[in-house]
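INTERNAL AUDIT FORM
Audit reference: QA-55
Scope: verify that the stored structure record matches its stored sequence.
Auditor: D.O.
Record contents follow.
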Amino acid sequence: METSDRGARGDAVTTATASFAGRTVFRVGYGAAQLDRLRDRRGEAVALMRRAVELGVDHVDTAEFYGFGFANAVIREALRPEDGVLVVTKVGADPDPGGRLPLRIAQRPEQLRASVEDNLRSLGVDRLPVVNLRRLDTGPGLRAEGDQVVDLDDQLAVMTALRDEGKIGAIGLSSVTLDGLRRALPAGIVCVQNAYSLVSRADEDLLRLCAAEGIAWVPFFPLGGAFPGLPKVTEEPAVHAVAESLGVTPSQVGLAWLLHHAPNVLLIPGTADPAHLEANTAVGTLTLDDTALAVLDAVESRSNDVPIG
């Protein structure tokens, strides 16, 4: 499945749903990291999640280290079984409330298992439908050192054991390289989460492999700019020009480009604002014509490999 095929791209965005872990989901989901901004307004956080469901969101991305468990607690309170929402979580880091950063690396197999148990407990479920193993091989963020440098095969062994035990349903990968994904394919990978946006497209070969293997591509930092030094999609003149021509926001254009770029792209934009949530979900039906796509495709891609910490 070639992502450069214009016809395939045009058809893809007219299909508001895509396959993910054996389910059909709306291509615009919700990333729960920003729920912590509503920590002192829990009722608003729960209402925001309910509004997301009303808008058709049926794919939520979370982690125990989002707000030291606050995001998971809100999801547990807000979502009901009849909502049919696919809740995807991740392991590879744990909350660290007293640390210089709000999380600490947790890559060792026993830590991955403990993190799965923490997510099961805080979400109040017996099984996590999809768990992303967050590696630290690529993209912006921390890098593993010392005993946190763990071979991928050792990590996949514990993840597949947890799947065999019924504690997780499927395995995803995050911050992974092309070679890493190739090594992991026999384990049955259902999604990849890497930093990727219109202005940071270094992982194009990885995206193509995911498309060919039927693996969902779920980019984080889909608009760039999350850390100092990362380019921002919304600062591109071309993005502003297309947004003005369509009467939408630059952020919506940046997200819509991702949906047009490949049919296996799923989005998980996060927000703590109901109006912003509505603008994000509306992207699922925003059409970019060939002229707009050509303008956006011509935007220069820059590196997103900015370490922090």
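Auditor finding: record pair retrieved intact. Residues 105 and 283 are 34 Å apart (CA to CA).
Action required: none
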